[in-house]
Amino acid sequence: MNFVSCDFIAFLVTTWVAYALVPARFRAYILLAASYLFYAYWSIPFIAVILFTTSVDYAASKFVANSTSKAHRKFAMFAAIALNLAILGTFKYSTFLLTSVKPLFEKIGLHQNLPDGLNIILPLGISFYTFEAISYLVDVYRGSPPAPSWIKYNFFIMYFPHLLSGPIVRFKELYRQYEAPLQMASKERFAKAFELILLGYIFKVIIADGAARICDPMFINPGGTSVLDTYCGALAFGSRVYFDLMGYTHIARGVSLLFNIELPLNFNHPIAAGNIREFWSRWHISLSRWIRDYLFVPLGSLTSTPMQLAFVLIIVMTLAGLWHGAGWTFMLWGFFHGCLLAFYHAYRRLYLDVGHKFPAVKRYLDHSKLYNLFSLVLTQSIVIFSLVIFGSPNLKTAFILIKHLARVDKLFEQLEFAFTTNQCSALASVFALALIGYSSPQLVRIYNACFTPLPVFVKAQTATCAALLCWILSSGDFKPFVYFQF
Fold first, then answer.
1. CB-based burial of residue 275 (10 Å sphere; 0-12 exposed, 13-18 middle, 19+ buried)?
2. How far apart are CA 207 and CA 430, in angstroms?
3. What gap in Å lies between CA 12 and CA 35, rounded to an integer?
4. How far apart are alpha carbons 53 and 136 in whole angstroms?
5. Which of 257, 268, 287, 334 could form a disulfide with 318 if both were Cys (CB 3.0 to 4.6 A apart)?
6. How far is it, in rounded angstroms, from Cα 483 to Cα 391?
7. How far apart are CA 163 and CA 139, in angstroms?
């Protein structure tokens, strides 16, 4: 059920009315039942997978919490995690592994009994709720209290606003909000909910889907795409991924506030990041935090040298890339970001060493607007370049597009031709997308200063016009969210 569909709006209104009419002690059950209906709208059979994994995870967590043997506790935790990863691997990675090893088996003559592929449908949201299950098991092993009942834990996994594409939340963050009977949202929360939902629709329907019309042809026919169109497509795809996921997150957070439950912030102006480490602290924050706490920190405890740290960063980010999708492009994208983070840490050590020996140079660079601007442009350029790999359906497409991006000489020729022939519509659209992205911190401040003090009547009229604009521009053709495939 797409968040920007009429079906979802009808489902949301019905769920909220039922939530408002029942006594507070029954509201969590209403939301849980609605969550199952929400997931069943896409697939009823896959509900069995969630029921099975949540039952195993809950039983394992109770055993981990109650056992006095550290060895038994660790075994139960790792066994439950292994089961979750095995289910994720079966649904998400089995076809990829089969197609990857088949050429090797052909060379040694063992490919006769291997199928060409497996027709396995990927359960929606499986990557997200698997990560949440792993964080729950690890937190219980580290000393956090387990869920008091299977229903309470099941609610944490199934809660529909964050079920399909996050944010990735921790059990204790969500449970403390529905531990007591759920109350009706305050007027302030209710107003904030509608604001977030509407902004999410604008980000998704107007900006992200608009950007998709520019970048989609680049991935469909890379060989027939000019160098200029590749640059425009790369910039548009960066905007699409950003505003698409941010749109989903805003809608999810807004919907959740209608039920008086707050989901965490998932973006903090990543386009304003001046280095790759800062970018990952601002981009998809819930995923970055999960990677840090459950991959990097455990593996980082094994590092004692810069080379070991670089190795761990590359391994962690490659796994993060693989989490996004079963394909070599995702692994290459993650590997590339791991190398970037490793290079940044090496550069940072050198920068601090030079600053220690030449403090005047460090002070100058720290306060230099030109240096900071260069860092910002370099970081964002590298991120957009990497997203071309991320968005490509295969390595062949990625390499063709990278070759196009490397033809800077052709870029200037085609730019000159576009300006002289007045064929600048794509350039104007990409410039508008870039302007929206890079000026987002300033736009938020202007929005808060100008829109917040307005009377309720004016806000309501503005919101209605914005909603109608989303509907008109979409023409009823709602593209699926990018992260639904993960």
1. middle
2. 11
3. 11
4. 12
5. 334
6. 11
7. 20
Q: Using only the alpha carbons of the chain, give its radius of gyration.
A: 24
> How far is the C-alpha of 242 from the C-alpha of 49, rounded, in Å?
30
Residue 94 three-state SS = helix
Tokens of 424: 């600048």
Q: Which amino acid is present at 330? A: F
Count of C-beta atoms within a 10 Å radius of residue 161: 26
Quote the tokens at residue 232: 């425009």
| Structure token pair of residue 479 | 């593209």
How many C-beta atoms surround the C-beta of residue 27 within 10 A? Answer: 21
How far is 140 from 261, CA to CA, in rounded Å?
Answer: 23
Write the CB contacts of 456 (distance below 8 Å, at least 6 apart in sequence). Answer: none
**Among the listed residues 275, 289, 249, the one whose alpha carbon sits nearest the alpha carbon of residue 337:** 275
Intervals of the chain under pLDDT 50: none
Q: Which residues contact 145 (CB under 8 A, 6 or more apart)?
A: 65
Q: Which residues contact 350 (CB under 8 A, 6 or more apart)?
A: none
Domain residue limits, the chain: 6-92+124-182, 189-485
In the set 162, 250, 284, 324, the catalytic residue is: 324
Q: Do 312 and 303 contact (CB within 8 A), yes or no?
A: yes
Residue 269: CB atoms within 10 A of its CB come to 14
CB contact at 8 A, 429 and 209: no
User: Which helix (DSSP H) or strand (DSSP E) does residue 116 occupy?
Assistant: none
Q: Which of 275, 253, 257 is nearest to 267 (CA)?
A: 253
Which among 222, 124, 104 has a CA at the least distance from the CA of 166? 124
CA-to-CA separations, 438 to 159, 272, 434, in angstroms, rounded: 33, 7, 6
Question: CA nearest 483: which of 257, 167, 268, 267?
Answer: 167
pLDDT in tens, 281-306: 999 999 999 999 999 988 876 677 88
Residue 269 region by backbone torsions, left for phi larger than 0, else alpha for psi between -120 and 50, else beta: left
- Per the listing, tokens 């304003």 go with 272
The candidate with the shortest Cα–Cα distance to 218, out of 244, 187, 240, is 240
326 torsion bin: left (phi>0), alpha (psi -120 to 50), beta (else): beta
Within 13 A of 129's CA, how many CA atoms are on the CB side? Answer: 28
- pTM strictly above 0.85: yes
In eight-state DSSP terms, residue 2 is -
**What is the sign of the dihedral through the CA atoms of 451, 456, 458 and 461?**
positive
Q: Which of 336, 380, 388, 381 is nearest to 218 (CA)?
A: 388
Active site residue 324: yes
Residue 216 CB partners (closer than 8 Å, separation 6+) = none
> For residues 346 and 297, what is the distance between their CA atoms, to the nearest angstrom?
19
Supply the pLDDT for residue 450: 77
